[in-house]
Amino acid sequence: MVCGILWAGLCFADSPIKIQDARGNWIELAVPASRVVALAPHIVENFYSAGAGGTLVGAVSYSDYPEQAKALPEIGNYKSVSYESLLALAPDLVVAWGSGNGDEMIHKLESLGFTVFVTESRSLEDIARNVRMFGVLTGTAEAADRTASAWLDRLAALKKNHQHLAPVSVFYQVWNDPLQTLNGEHLISDVIETCGGHNAFADAVVLAPKISIESVLERNPDAIIASGMGETRPEWLNDWKVYPGLNAVKNGNLYHVPPDIIQRHTFRIIQGMELICRQLQTVRNP
């Protein structure tokens, strides 16, 4: 195959389609994919953003946005899928989440003969890049590029408005038992930094480390931002109030962001970012 244009891992030509996934593997399709199974809720959402929702024939549990995604056949969850159900759907492409689905599942899928495209988002710009790639894979590149460009413009404006702010130390709490956070390689760390914050556990070795209460007390963050399981502020966020010497507690900076608008790697993350930016501005100007 000869590429007319090669840019950012995308090879544009009349046919076939050739595109590089998050592993660095080149995935080649003779024609645009028309039967796609997505192995994470955020991948499903990003296919709709790419104008390619109509190509989806299967998904995993909690794929509930946009509304029409709820009607997709469910083949399991992001950690465990029914390979029999997947075979019955006969997809011409399976789109996986590298750090979520894991190497074992991805290798199993490939051993069964599926064409697997692996995605990952470690920066905000990666979200737009993935949407554009989904457009290339399914023949909706023009629509995908329009939505991605509009979103990147909105992101650039938000970044510009939050430059040169006084830094705020943030502990981002994924869960309480076990106590878990995210390191500097995670996309949410990029969100925090965009808002002029600093991830208190940016130096953690693993992506989503389990930590101790003592380590949080030692780093003494200015704010604690928790996600939890839904729209409602988790009750366990108030457990920090037993440590009145903690800066975040002393100054009343215990915040909640609904996980769907911050922990899903989709265009909706900008809503979570706008909320975090307002929260950190309150920390600076109580």
Major β-sheet profile: 4 strands, antiparallel
Distance between the termini: 60 Å
Tell me the series of helices and strands, N- to C-terminal. EEEEEHEEEHEHHEHHEEEHEHEHEH
Structural class: alpha/beta
The mean pLDDT is 93
- Which assembly state applies to the chains in this document? single chain
The amount of beta strand, in percent, is 15-25%
The helix fraction, in percent, is 25-40%
State the low-pLDDT regions, or none: 1-9
Number of strands: 16
Number of helices: 10
Strand line-up across the major sheet: 1-2-3-4
Q: Can you tell me the overall shape?
A: globular
- Gyration radius, rounded: 20 Å
Condensed summary:
This protein has helices at residues 41-49, 83-89, 98-101, 103-111, 124-138, 141-161, 187-194, 213-219, 247-250, 269-284, and strands at 5-7, 10-12, 17-20, 26-29, 36-38, 56-58, 76-77, 80-81, 93-97, 116-119, 168-173, 175-176, 179-180, 197-199, 223-226, 254-256.
